[in-house]
Automatic annotation (TrEMBL):
Protein name: AAA+ ATPase domain-containing protein
Domain of life (superkingdom): Bacteria
Organism: Niastella caeni
Domain AAA+ ATPase: 277-572
GO molecular function: ATP binding; ATP hydrolysis activity
UniProt cross-references to Pfam families, sorted A to Z: AAA_5 (PF07728)
Length: 660
């Protein structure tokens, strides 16, 4: 092996591992192998190897990838008589660049698919004292995991019988040190020689180290007492599929840089987790197919994580969440603008002279709420109280009892707030001068650190801002803020000029550009606010009518950033006669239009009107719009349907009669 490294000029560039016929502790083996791999790789298991294997009288060599147990390059098995050292060296020389280029990606999670294998925790806590360091060193040298055969609760039996080749374990030294993730090798269990441990009854299994801990100190996990954690009161325990996501989040990702992937765990996660929905979706379909109706159900499902079929129940929850600010609803129209949606200015109608005040739109406000919740939950902190909430508390004596509110200034004297409106604070100066004003919007910007006032009205703004700022930090309940989802429903999203309304948000909406994502982006807004980003817990649910001519305004930029969910007529929701009639006219529409964009939805027959009125007041006007007022085309559509519908050219009106 040393000669191969030297001849290939790999000295100082690679690491190697050698396993001979003696086996661990000279107990014998029928296999000899060695691997040479990039020195930046943690073990041979994490990267490519120059691999040579002698096993049961046959030889294999090549460029080997442990992750999927495959040869990238190399020969099959051969007998020793056919083995040619020079040919092997030549192949290694031609391929050594693969090893040299095989450096691990820094800060990237190592993903390990379980592929129907099991995952366990094994604790060597019995050997955690300093006097047992030499014993642990032997375990590490031989790549053993150990347990005493008298370990209760079935743990020893499970270690001997349930642990099979290909299973994974994470090794912890009690609750004090994390060591490594390992993969179980083939072979049965055996007894650890008594001269190693000083007592009999210890049994071992051979493993292969996959990934050492990147943070060995599990102190932050001390409060977790479940068996899967280092401090859990267990020696050997399985991490079942329902616990894999939790273990990934709390143990494997932060302490090992690893995530385990399990198909069963993914199913459980998709059924119970709040974050499996796409961040940006549009419910799209022809009119009357229930897009707006279903947007309510979808929003409630995203926020609560619970999918209920009963729309009436969802509507009750929707109204509650909307009142609490977790869901907002807006309908786009032709005059809707970026200033309405994000930030802009509006006239200050309360001021005698013409001036403008800044305005923050519906998207800005809900993004702010979602962002505050995201960071509070991320840092396991209580969420700060909102400006509006604290401002209302400070002025409660004035608003509820009519009592003026005194604010202490830096000089130690007080000014008095005497009145407020939606936008303005009226106050008297300490000298008694009355009817001076402060802008509530400006006050909020000072509280949020977006503006400063050091002169002029600064002595009045700043003490009030400091009072509000201090009260904002008073937690509502001193409990860590749980992560919540927020939803903005945009009805008729294609009715506005999308590029104009969304502006730079088109980029920020992408999932990988959101706060905390790999390609996170933040921008400076037109009003000067810096570092604005869109959090991952904000979801957009749009609705789009495919029959609307405004659909042409939905450009590629928007389509690429949204997932589209189609809604089409559902005849099963209707009475049989209405379902047959609607299916007939939709078939005729499709024949003429060659697209499903202009079909008519079932909701038209679910509005509480009788069928006659629905046809006369809703279906016929819509068909006349579809076919440019051509009565003969609309008449032809109704032909052979369950209704006899004709246009009277003398009365210039439609005659509608049941065909039955």
């Amino acid at each position: 092996m040393a000669e191969i490294i030297s001849r290939l000029a790999l000295n100082g560039k690679v690491k190697h591992i050698y396993f001979d016929f003696q086996g661990p502790r000279q107990q014998g083996s029928d296999k000899l192998w060695f691997a040479i791999f990039n020195k930046e790789q943690e073990t041979q298991s994490t990267g490519l190897q120059l691999f040579v294997d002698f096993h049961k009288g046959k030889v294999k060599y090549g460029i080997y990838r442990h992750a999927d147990a495959s040869f990238v390059k190399g020969s099959g098995e051969m007998l020793p008589g056919n083995f040619n050292f020079a040919e092997m060296l030549k192949m290694f020389e031609e391929s050594k660049h693969l090893i040299l280029e095989d450096e691990p990606v820094k800060n990237k999670l190592l993903t390990i698919p379980l592929n129907q294998k099991s995952l366990y925790k094994i604790s060597h806590g019995a050997f955690k004292s300093k006097g047992n360091e030499s014993i642990l060193d032997i375990f590490k040298e031989n790549q053993w995991i150990v347990i005493h055969e008298n370990t209760g609760n079935g743990q020893a039996e499970s270690f001997k019988n349930d642990l099979t080749e290909g299973d994974y374990v994470y090794i912890t030294i009690g609750g004090d040190e994390l060591f490594s993730i390992a993969k179980v090798k083939a072979g049965s269990w055996g007894y650890v020689p008594e001269d190693i441990t000083g007592k009999n009854g210890w049994i071992y299994r051979e493993v292969e180290y996959i990934k050492s801990a990147i943070n060995t100190d599990p102190f932050p996990l001390k409060s977790f007492k479940e068996f899967i954690y280092p401090s859990g009161n267990s020696t050997f325990t399985e991490i079942t599929v329902d616990k894999i996501e939790e273990a990934n989040k709390n143990i494997f990702e932060p302490y090992f840089g690893v995530e385990f992937i399990s198909e069963e765990a993914s199913i459980i996660k998709s059924q119970g987790e709040l974050h499996k929905h796409p961040n940006n979706i549009i419910l799209v379909g022809p009119p009357g197919t229930g897009k707006t109706y279903n947007s309510i159900d979808k929003a409630v499902e995203i926020v609560t994580g619970i999918k209920k079929k009963d729309h009436d129940d969802n509507k009750v929850v929707f109204d509650k969440l909307k009142k609490e600010g977790q869901i907002e609803f807006v309908t786009f129209h032709q005059n809707y603008s970026y200033e309405d949606f994000m930030v802009g200015i509006r006239p200050d109608i309360e001021n005698e002279s013409l001036r403008f005040r800044s305005y923050k739109g519906i998207f800005y406000e809900i993004a702010k709420k979602a962002r505050e919740n995201y960071f509070a939950s991320l840092n396991e902190q209580s969420k700060e109280r909102s400006f509006q909430e604290v401002f209302a508390d400070v002025l409660k004596p004035l608003t509820e009892k009519g009592e003026p509110v005194k604010i202490k200034m830096a000089s130690g004297i007080y000014y008095t707030i005497t009145d407020i409106t939606d936008y303005t604070i009226y106050f008297n100066k300490p000298s008694g001068d009355s009817r001076h004003t402060l802008s509530i919007q400006t006050l909020e910007e000072i509280v949020d650190g977006l503006r400063e006032f050091t002169t002029g009205l600064g002595p009045y703004y700043n003490p009030l801002a400091e009072l509000i700022r201090s009260k904002k930090k008073e937690a509502n309940n001193n409990k860590a803020e749980p992560k919540k989802n927020y939803v903005l429903i945009i009805d008729e999203i294609n009715r506005a000029n999308i590029s104009k309304v969304f502006g730079e948000l088109i980029t920020l909406l992408e999932e990988d550009k959101r706060i905390g994502a790999k390609n996170e982006l933040r921008i400076t807004l037109p009003n000067g606010e810096k570092e604005f980003g869109v959090p991952p817990n904000l979801y957009l649910v749009g609705t789009m009518n495919t029959a609307d001519k405004s659909i042409a305004l939905i450009d590629i930029a928007l389509r690429r950033r949204f997932e589209f969910i189609g809604y089409f007529p559902d005849y099963s929701k209707l009475e049989e006669s209405d379902g047959i009639f609607l299916k007939h006219i939709n078939k005729e529409i499709f024949t003429r239009k060659k697209t499903a964009d202009y079909l008519i939805g079932h909701a038209y027959f679910m509005a509480g009107l009788d069928s006659y009125k629905t046809i006369k007041n809703k279906i016929i006007p819509l068909l006349m719009e579809y076919f440019s007022g051509k009565t003969e085309v609309v008449e032809e559509i109704f032909k052979n349907s369950t209704w006899d519908i004709k246009y009277d050219i003398e009365k210039y009106d439609w005659i509608i009669q049941s065909a039955n």
